[in-house]
Specification:
heterodimer, A: 168 residues, mainly alpha, B: 163 residues, 0% strand
Chain lengths: 168, 163
């Protein structure tokens, strides 16, 4: 199966056909995509600022519920993003900004995994007023940086449409 | 030359409109600012409506500062975007609705924060007995107004004749 065959599968999917046929769906999807990203970055600002050491008197477990809002926002964006992709897969797949954005999302996902597997239990056990470890701070800093870069590259997609590289 | 055309002809307006980097950079900044402002307001509304009850509301004092920075980024990038295409934006219905909703949203956000302050003007903390129905209604209103502003903003791109 070639790359073109796989892209064609996305193209011919029910999602791809429907989004192309019902014209307002793409714009509705974009609005949802922006709301999803706002939920995600808003929740990450609350959690990551606490992990970086702001509000030390608040137990970290008090902010962690916001990760659920981040996941909800991310889910909205995966679904709307999939809808965009299926409607025009060859166009997105040939866009260098799109590939970079997807790669950054993978990195952000790995960063989340790092937090869940190693950092979460450390910070939940932290005494009130205590400072987080340096690796927790790095994780939180990476989180904010990556998600903001992802927003930026998402916004730059139309600029790099049809470009062969980000630097041409 | 009309005022709007004069704005478009300024160095800044021309740069946004004609340079390869201008428009994308300004729009990218505007997207990040939007995420920050709308995101923090959504988180405050969620907290007021009962989410993460163990987080004291006064943590939002710092978050308001972050949101103001985001708002400043969007005010500046918004002015730049307007300069680039003033004559078309000034008559674009979604744009005018969006500015109206941002203004109303600003008032709604201020009102919500206000409904969460004690007699000394400080945001409520660990001793808070919970939101009044006014605060809850304002939280819902903020969610609707700001999501409306996001929608209106997206519709600008579909209804305007750019440059």
């Amino acid at each position: 199966m070639t790359e073109a065959d796989i892209l064609q599968l996305f193209n011919n999917s029910w999602l791809g056909i429907t989004v192309r046929e019902v014209r307002w769906l793409f714009g509705a999807g974009e609005t949802l995509h922006f709301i999803g990203l706002s939920m995600l970055i808003g929740a990450m600002i609350v959690v990551d600022l606490r992990l970086l050491g702001v509000w030390k008197r608040i137990p970290i477990s008090a902010v962690l519920p916001f990760t659920k809002i981040a996941i909800a926002g991310f889910a909205i964006n995966v679904i709307s993003g999939l809808a965009f992709f299926c409607s025009n897969p060859f166009n997105y797949w040939s866009n260098p900004a799109f590939k970079l954005k997807m790669f950054l999302i993978v990195l952000a996902g790995l960063n989340v995994l790092w937090f869940e597997l190693a950092e979460r239990k450390k910070v939940v056990g932290l005494a009130v007023g205590g400072d987080t470890a340096i690796d927790t701070k790095i994780n939180a800093g990476l989180s904010l940086t990556l998600w903001i870069l992802i927003i930026i590259f998402g916004r730059l997609l139309p600029t790099f449409e049809g470009a062969t590289s980000l630097f041409s | 030359m009309g005022f709007l055309a004069w704005l478009e002809a300024t160095g800044l307006g021309t740069w946004v409109r004609e340079s390869n980097f201008g428009y994308p950079i300004v729009l990218a900044a505007h997207s990040v600012g939007m995420g920050v402002v709308v995101g923090i307001i959504l988180m405050l509304s969620a907290r007021v409506l009962g989410f993460a009850k163990r987080l004291p509301v006064n943590t939002f004092e710092v978050l308001f500062t972050v949101a103001w920075v985001g708002f400043a980024v969007n005010a500046i990038s918004g002015v730049l975007l307007f300069l680039g295409n003033a004559s078309h934006l000034a008559v674009n219905a979604p744009f005018l609705i969006k500015i109206f909703l941002v203004a109303v949203g600003g008032i709604a956000a201020w009102a919500l924060a206000n409904a969460l302050r004690d007699e000394n003007g400080a945001l409520v903390g660990e001793n808070w007995t919970g939101p009044t129905s006014k605060a809850k209604a304002l939280a819902v209103a903020n969610i609707l107004i700001w999501c409306g502003a996001v929608l209106a903003g997206r519709l600008i791109g579909y209804t305007i004749s750019y440059f």
